[in-house]
Amino acid sequence: MGWRCGGLRWSPGGAELVWRDGGRERRSKLGYGRDLGFRAVGERRCAGVRGQVCPLGAVVGGRSTGGQCPDCARLDRSRSVAADTVADDPQPYMVYLAWFGPGMVKVGITAEARGSARLLEQGAVVFTRLGRGPLMAARRTEELLRTALGVPDRVPYAAKRAVRATLPTAPAERASEVGELYARAVALAGWPESLERADYRPVDHMGVFGLTGTPPVTAVIGELVDGGRVAGRLVAAAGPDLHLECDDGAVLVLDTRLVKGWELAAAGDTGGVSVPVREVAGSDRSVQDGLF
Asked: Which residues does 152 contact at the CB level (< 8 Å), separation at least 6?
């Protein structure tokens, strides 16, 4: 088995693709304006659990965003804060409000040690911290805000993608909804005493994601297949999504969760994209037979 893609990671320096070969790992930094191309080879294998190799080397479906076999997925969720299967983590947690576009704000928690990483992974365009404290206090605060303010704890990726080309250009306008909800949140009674309040300090990821002037998305790549080729110029990246502009002007979104577990080779000299795609509603471009 050779090097296989481990998906996208966000670091202080920007977006990186992770590669794994057994216990070894390396990363490739991505840059906007640069060409990105590859060809999928063979079968997609289970990505394992937290950097550990799947003992079965199981084959997984091309449309799975988890990229794991059932056994590894169960093991992953058995110790997961997101799945509410961890209650004894002693490290401090942060409660936050995240904005993805007009009318799309969510509340969530993340380990304080991770900094902005969780927000970058979700594609949050703007976020602000609300407070910090023990895990269960952070959980109770998240539930309080979700119920009292009517703010969800999840926003679908399709909704996030749909608005990226039309986000407000002024930072103050992008932060306005988060600011309003922050004011309502801190005025609520019932916050756990062990949760320390945070001052309102919006963090804007518009520049980090390269979303200023991003052209509208034409289609979303649905899966990779053996021999399938993806190539384009990287114009933006947000959360797990890479926005690739093709030679004909079409803009495709590649959800890098679909790349985890694939062995990738050089794209070669053949132009175009030869993987199944889903046309974005409202696009004035035609995607014939699901292929470019």
From this structure: 106, 107, 146
pTM across the whole model: 0.91
Residue type, 165: A
- Environment class of 216 (CB within 10 Å of its CB; exposed 0-12, middle 13-18, buried 19+): middle
The pair phi, psi for residue 61, each rounded to 5°, is: -70, 150
Range 281-289, long-range pairs (CB < 8 A, 24+ positions): 283/216, 283/217, 283/218, 283/219, 285/218, 285/219, 285/250, 287/218, 287/219
Q: What is the pLDDT of residues 13-66, one digit of tens each?
A: 899 999 988 778 899 999 999 999 999 999 999 999 887 889 999 999 999 999
Q: How far apart are CA 93 and CA 96, in angstroms?
A: 10
Between 206 and 51, residue with greater pLDDT: 206
CA pair distance 251, 292, nearest whole angstrom? 11
The answer to whether residue 287 scores a pLDDT higher than 80 is no
Tokens, residue 70 = 């059932």
Write the DSSP symbol of residue 221: E
Q: Is pLDDT of 270 > 80?
A: no
Q: Which residues pair with 37 in a beta bridge?
A: 231
Contact 42, 263 (CB under 8 A): yes
DSSP state of 178: H
Distance of CA 229 to the CA centre of its chain: 22
| pLDDT tens readout for residues 242-266 | 999 998 889 999 999 999 999 999 8
* Nearest Cα residue to 18 out of 3, 10, 26, 113: 26
Strands in the chain per DSSP E: 4-11, 14-21, 24-29, 35-41, 93-101, 104-111, 126-133, 196-197, 203-204, 219-221, 229-238, 241-245, 251-255, 263-265, 277-279
Q: Give the per-residue pLDDT at 214.
A: 86
* Dihedral, 231, 54, 84, 15 alpha carbons, nearest 10: -30
